[in-house]
Amino acid sequence: MSTGENDLLAQERHRLIILELESKGQVTVVELKSLLQVSLDTVRRDLERLELEGKLQRVHGGAVSKREELATNQAFFKRKITQNERKQEVAMHAVELVKEYQAVTLNAGTTNIEVAKRLAARFEKLTVITNSLRVADILAQKKGFTVIVPGGYLNHEEFSLYGRSIEEEIMNFNIDIAFISINAISLEKGLTDFRQGEAEVINAMLKSARRKIVVADSSKFETVSYLNICGLDQIDTIVTDSYMDDTLLDMYKKHNISIINAGSS
Question: In principle, which of 74, 111, 124, 205 could form an S-S bond with 144, CB 3.0–4.6 Å?
Fold first, then answer.
């Protein structure tokens, strides 16, 4: 194929990306991979080129239109500070549910990174099964912890492991508590996420656990991502932060959803 033909294909992809951004305001690299039928590396190169041309703003995992840039930068700044404080609050309440010597699972996710830090600070003897290498690294300092990382293939962006072998291995354990870090929660769609591979890992953890706990800051409620995980009837409790809107909290409780947050303690 000639250079001219390659340039034409790139131009067509770029037009599609801009149209998608104009329609949605933001897109993920995974969505664009499916739309354009190209590799993730090609999508990333296209986004880099379009950013250099001033046509979009790249963000972690995707891009936003230029008109969304200010709001998005503000959102990421808040996520690094305010949201992180909320995740720490969630973790503080979540570990109250754990007892020494129990077996727990932590899937990949920033909230579970905070849960791992709290577990390491509070307990001496736990068994922890995780697909997150970041969680495993945090818990490596605890000599009394048994840390199990099932084998799978590495997702370099999430720094976590996926694959059928990891799901089957998780299913071999009898787990006391599964802590599930999730991207989105809604009454209509239940738990949803954007991470390819994470859905299967989460469901394996849920099936193996006696108690199923979702850990999510209040910004995750009544949002929907594109991969279905499970309905809210498949979990026991949601642990969230004190910023949860009272009206929203009441609405969930009217649907018999158990929620633990600082405001209710």
Answer: 124
DSSP reduced 3-state for 79: helix
| Domain 98-264 CATH superfamily | Translation initiation factor eif-2b; domain 2 (3.40.50.10470)
Q: Please provide the CATH number assigned to the domain covering 3-70.
A: 1.10.10.10
- 3 state DSSP class of 205: helix
Cβ pair 201, 107 in contact under 8 A: yes
Q: Is 59 helix (H, G, I), strand (E, B) or coil?
A: strand
Residue whose entry in the numeric block shows the structure tokens 């936003």: 64
CB 80 within 8 A of CB 103: no
Both ends of the chain: CA-CA distance in Å?
A: 65
Residue whose C-alpha is closest to residue 142's, from 91, 96, 104: 104
Q: Alpha-carbon distance 175 to 103, whole Å?
A: 5
Band of pLDDT at residue 69, cut at 50, 70 and 90: very low
Of the candidates 232, 139, 248, 249, the residue with the CA atom closest to the CA atom of residue 180 = 232
pTM of the model: 0.70
The share of the chain scoring above pLDDT 90, in percent, equals 62
For residue 191, which phi and psi values (nearest 5 degrees)?
-90, 130
Q: How far is CA 46 from CA 12, 32, 40, 173, 221, in A?
A: 11, 10, 10, 43, 32
User: Which percentage of the chain shows pLDDT scores above 70?
Assistant: 88
Domain residues of the chain, as ranges? 3-70, 98-264
